[in-house]
Amino acid sequence: MSGCKVLLVDDEKDFLEALALRLEARKLTVDVAATGEAAVAKAKTQSFDAILLDLAMPGMDGIEALKRLRELNPDSQVVLLTGHATVAKATEAMRLGALDVLEKPVDIEVLVEKIEQAATNKVRLTEQRIGEEMTDILRKKGW
């Protein structure tokens, strides 16, 4: 999905840069953050079609960042990436609203498919929310 806006969050600089280049080569617009705190700050001022979030980071880890990102925007589509997957963490992430949890190294085609799914989900959720707001406005106005 060309032009999809992705936020990539990982504390491993080399991984962050390499994956960003691979996604940009597929015509995705990529913004990066090296910490959970930086990701939350960016999400306060920008909207992303998909957020790719490392699970294990110093400071604010992926689970806490996921919670905060979903509080900011419940329509946020977050895919967690991890080299240290545990069933408990994956289950918690899904319970908190993550779209998926993928293990590093992730197959780029699988990741791009998840990004496309995230973008589609976000559009659907946003349209649904706006439709509900419009219905509420019309009901209040008596039209």
Describe this structure in words.
The protein has a five-stranded parallel beta sheet with strand order 2-1-3-4-5, sandwiched between helices. The chain has a single domain (5-141), classed as Rossmann fold (3-Layer(aba) Sandwich), CATH 3.40.50.2300. It has 143 residues and is α/β, with parallel strands linked by helices. The N and C termini lie far apart (39 Å). The mean pLDDT is 93. It is built from five helices and five strands; from the N terminus they run βαβαβαβαβα. 54% of the residues lie in helices and 17% in strands. The chain has helices spanning 13-25, 36-45, 62-72, 87-95, 108-141, and strands at residues 5-9, 29-33, 50-54, 78-82, 100-103. α2 (36-45) packs parallel to α3.
Outline:
By secondary structure, the protein is of the alpha/beta class.
Tags for this entry?
five-stranded parallel β-sheet; Rossmann fold; 143 residues; globular; 54% helix; alpha/beta
Strand order within the widest sheet? 2-1-3-4-5
Count of discrete domains:
1
What is the element string, with H for helices and E for strands? EHEHEHEHEH
Which stretches are low in confidence, meaning pLDDT under 50 for 5 or more residues running?
none
> Biggest sheet, in brief?
5 strands, parallel
Name given to the CATH homologous superfamily: Response regulator
Shape descriptor reads globular
Share in helix: 40-55%
Cα gyration radius (Å):
16 Å
Task: Give the terminus-to-terminus CA distance.
Answer: 39 Å
Q: What is the average of the pLDDT values?
A: 93
Number of strands: 5
Beta-strand content estimate: 15-25%
- State the helix count: 5
